[in-house]
Amino acid sequence: MPEQYINRSILDGELFETLYALQLSSNRRFHTTFTLVFISVPINCSDKWEKHLQSRIRDTDIAFRFSAPNPYQILLTNAYKSEAEIFVKRIFESFQEKGHHLKDVGASILEIANGQAAIEEVIHSGREAVSAVLSSGSALPYVIVDTFEQREKIIIRVSILEEDPLVTQILSNLLERAVLEDVEIDVKIFYDGFDFLESDWYQSAHTHLVIVNDVLPRKNGIDVLHALRGMPNERKFHIFMMTRRTSEEEMIYAYEHGIDEYIVKPFNPKLFEAQVKKLLGRLYS
Predict the structure, then answer these.
(1) pTM
(2) pLDDT tens profile 35-82
(3) Which terminus of the chain faces fewer neighbouring Cβ atoms within 10 Å, N or C?
């Protein structure tokens, strides 16, 4: 069955700033990636091009109309540059198949993974790249700009609640080995659950990994678990509980009340490292 296309609206360029800000906010919060395509076409074929573009953009694409010389910007939500490159090739090839030429038509592709990418810098880079393509006379009518692909460092907090200094040192070393390239950890050690809950360390908005022994002076691991899971923003906490106990009833109780992982002492360092990598991969890969 042939692929079907439906004409879709092209929005006024004044709306781009608002929708870009929303997309960038999602990028910072959920670590998503999106891509922008900047397109320049001659004025004498703008009507033909606009009709063609309307017929080729997808449900997840948002196209904007600006004044010449770079009249179109397309926001591809949750898309990488590789997908955008395929998209650009298809719309250019299908334009030629209709009997039109690509003389003085050019595009640039910008993948946005950096949540701090300022709109002014993005627009300037995208349009400058299109101008460079047009002036170079390259046979390839588009260019990929990689300026905004590098994610900024993600900082997560880690709290280790454990009395034994040797165990805390081992855990700290393993955490350093388990972190991903774009993740930075900020580790703090507490020897008591009460001291942890009395601090303001856990009250920031950071994603927070809490590694807590179930047996602690004054406030034990279950007390800490109940306190954290009772907070309005409790989803930011990822709680690993260390224990020497093997009681199924106690473990089931802890899981039902919000434990993410159990670490049974004496624990396997490779298994702990794998548990942390799995968590970080799920959150940030």
Answers:
(1) 0.66
(2) 999 999 988 888 888 899 998 888 899 999 998 888 999 999 989 999
(3) N
Query: CB–CB of 52/95 below 8 Å?
Result: yes
Residue 5 DSSP symbol? -
User: Looking up tokens 């640039």, which residue turns up?
Assistant: 108
Place of tokens 């080729």: 56
Give the integer Cα–Cα distance in Å for 27 and 113: 7
Looking at every residue in the chain, the average pLDDT score rounds to 89
- Tokens linked to 74: 């397309």
Query: How many residues can be counted in the chain?
Result: 285
Residue 260 tokens, joined: 């993410």
Starting at the earlier edge strand, list the strands of the sheet with 142-145: 11-12, 61-65, 72-76, 34-40, 106-112, 142-145
Contact 206, 227 (CB under 8 A): no
